[in-house]
Amino acid sequence: MIVDSHQHFWNPARGDYGWMDGPGLEAIRKPILPENLAAHLNTCGIDRTVLVQAAPTVNETEYMLGLADATPSVAKVVGWVDFEKRSDLKHLERLAKHPKFAGVRPMIQDLPDPEWMHRNDIQWAFDAIVDLDLTFDALGFPVHLEPFLRLFNHNPKMRIVVDHCMKPRIRDGAFDDWAKGIAKIAHETEVYCKLSGIATEAAKGWTIDTLKPYAHHVIEVFGAKRVMFGSDWPVLELNGTYDSWFQAAKSIIQPHDFNAIFGETAAQFYRISK
Fold first, then answer.
1. Radius of gyration of the chain from its Cα atoms, rounded to whole angstroms
2. pLDDT (tens digit, 9 = 90+) per residue, 189-244?
3. CA distance linking residue 192 with residue 198, whole number of Å
4. Which of 76, 106, 120, 178 is the right S-S partner for 102, CB 3.0 to 4.6 Å?
5. How far apart are CA 83 and CA 121, in angstroms?
């Protein structure tokens, strides 16, 4: 079973994708639905996917679960609740009962305060994620590496995966500080990492050699059993294609790590059955 651990569907007409109004996003500012992804899954032999939130609303989570119910290839959904509203616990408890609901992802990369995750008034959400046995997708930039490390150490029972390798600034050639920070997370915690999003962080015209040092570092420090392939499609379309990234990842990953990174790790973490 080959799993894409990170993809999106959306319809901008719903009106809650505020980030999509930014410049340079015209190529993906359109409805992206299961029928648009199907050909890519068939071409690359992807069996199941994890559908991840792209709007900070509970309504979008409900929308995604509806799509997942009608789409057999979608194995799990990572949604959103408002961590700043303790009353949203009722939504988290309700959503947790859905068989395809995996967990949540606050859009921390878009928040101005890198320490937001340590606010006293949102700690209830991390406690609830643990109590309900849900997952937490950690979305951030290199500036969030140290705050996330403290959060992860403070919540050792929470099932956590780092999205997009914490978005190293590949287009700027930045490596050392990111590499040290991500290695510290890998060595000090039991957190997982998605091998995804790095093509988007590279300059236009990236090659396999551009991405290889970052991918190899993540696989080395986490180990294949804690790394999972993700496409980040259709955001990927801003700087590549589904097939180009899939083939690049296949070339980068050693054959003995293929089964784990392309399926087993995601299936274990998100509890995806065949």
1. 17
2. 999 999 999 999 999 999 999 999 999 999 999 999 999 999 999 999 999 999 99
3. 16
4. 76
5. 8
Maximum CA extent, the chain: 48
The neighbour count for residue 202, using CB atoms within 10 Å, is 19
Give the tokens for residue 43. Answer: 């071409």
Taking the C-alpha atoms of residue 159 and residue 220, their distance in angstroms, rounded to an integer, is 21
State the Cα–Cα distance between residues 143 and 138, nearest whole angstrom.
13
Contact 169, 201 (CB under 8 A): yes
d(Cα 100, Cα 272) in Å, to the nearest integer? 9
Per DSSP, the three-state class of 227 is strand
pTM beyond 0.90? yes
Q: What CATH number did the domain enclosing 158 receive?
A: 3.20.20.140
Which SS3 state, helix, strand or coil, does residue 256 take? Answer: helix
Query: How do residues 176-202 score in pLDDT, each as one tens digit?
Result: 999 999 999 999 999 999 999 999 999
Give the pair of three-digit tokens for residue 55: 């709007």
| Rounded-to-integer distance, Cα 257 and Cα 260, Å | 6
- The answer to whether 106 and 135 have CB atoms below 8 angstroms apart is no
CA nearest 101: which of 68, 124, 123? Answer: 68
152 contacts 183 by C-beta, under 8 angstroms: no
The beta strand positions in 40-158, using DSSP E, are 48-52, 74-79, 101-104, 135-138
Range of the domain at 104: 3-270
Contact 102, 78 (CB under 8 A): yes
Task: Please give the structure tokens belonging to residue 33.
Answer: 């639905």
- Relative to beta strand 48-52, strand 74-79 is parallel
